[in-house]
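User: My collaborator sent over this chain with a note saying "see what the structure looks like." That's all I know about it. Can you take a look?
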Amino acid sequence: MDIYILRHGIAVESGTPGYENDAKRPLIPKGKRQLRKSAAAMKKMNLKFDLILSSPLERAKRTAEIIADELKLTKTLKFTDALKNENAPEKLIGELVALKKQPSNLLLVGHEPYLSRLVSLLISVDEELAMDFKKGGLCKLEVEKLGFGKCAQLAWLLTPKLMKEIA
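Assistant: Without extra context I'll predict from the sequence alone. Here is the result:
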């Protein structure tokens, strides 16, 4: 299984007046443009996803919707609370292991520091691996058999700037 992990695009800053509810912070126009470039890069790289799972928080939800729409994969898009920052990565792993049909190519869309903790857990067992996971960045993990702790290899991590160059 290949697991691709995408951090949400650039959103309204936390604490901005009028956006006190963190769950409702939207993407800003620059973030939407950046994600369309990322989707173009994904197309060039021939990335296709059997399943796209996203956090339901507005900025991640919209990120996932843009990518799914651009790649014509809207039917594969689902939302899960397991990708919210307050949850432990083990909850998501449990959900994925329990799927009746394991996806070959899975895209996860979420937030920091959750995504770094998830990557750390899957590649090293330790949840404290230091990563600079940029907004709109994309990571690929190669997984032999999904489980709790060290079951994956980090294949690559692309910044939004590199994705723009690929597009």
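A starting point for your reply to your collaborator: The mean pLDDT is 93.
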